[in-house]
Amino acid sequence: MAFELPQLGYAYDALEPSIDAKTMEIHHTKHHQTYIDNLNKAIEGTDLEGKSIEEICRTAAEKPAIRNNGGGHYNHTLFWEILTPGGSKEPVGSVKAALENYGSLDKFKNDFTEAAKTRFGSGWAWLCKKEDGSLEVCSTPNQDNPLMPGAGCEGTPILGLDVWEHAYYLNYQNRRPDYITAFFDVINWDKVEEKYSK
User: Fold this and answer.
1) Which of these, 165, 167, 181, lies nearest to 110 by C-alpha position?
2) How far apart are CA 112 and CA 115, in angstroms?
3) I want to staple 72 with a disulfide (CB 3.0 to 4.6 A). Which of 139, 143, 163, 182 is the partner?
């Protein structure tokens, strides 16, 4: 069964002023849709048809068309899920405890901001849950993600920030740090907790 564009749980303008409606609409309907269309073409007629996107990212990452487009689909799907209008200001449950073990919420924010700010060119910043339950902050280039072999990160992503220019340029132009700061105002910590607890 072919992958399809996931529906958002909020309107395109619901994340303003952190992320503007026009950027959201283009990002969702054009960029994400293109990754899905190209991924479906790349796996058509192969043994990857019918596999989960997570399995595709873990096992087929050496094929550029699948790595780039599979990553694009996985990464954006997670991104939409961990956003919410108005944000939920504080982490909850197990992920709150894990962040306290990491150092503090402020340490996470500082490390995550640095990972997102210093990612040269296009890519993503991640908060990942490692096998032992601890957390790691890292970044990956392009549409790579921590599920992929050789990505330079360990663990399962539970929060991610798109730092490709298409994610912020209409509103923030070259001010990536302002976009990163605004991102913290629309994080859905309930969803991050759900992903951590799975």
Assistant:
1) 181
2) 5
3) 143
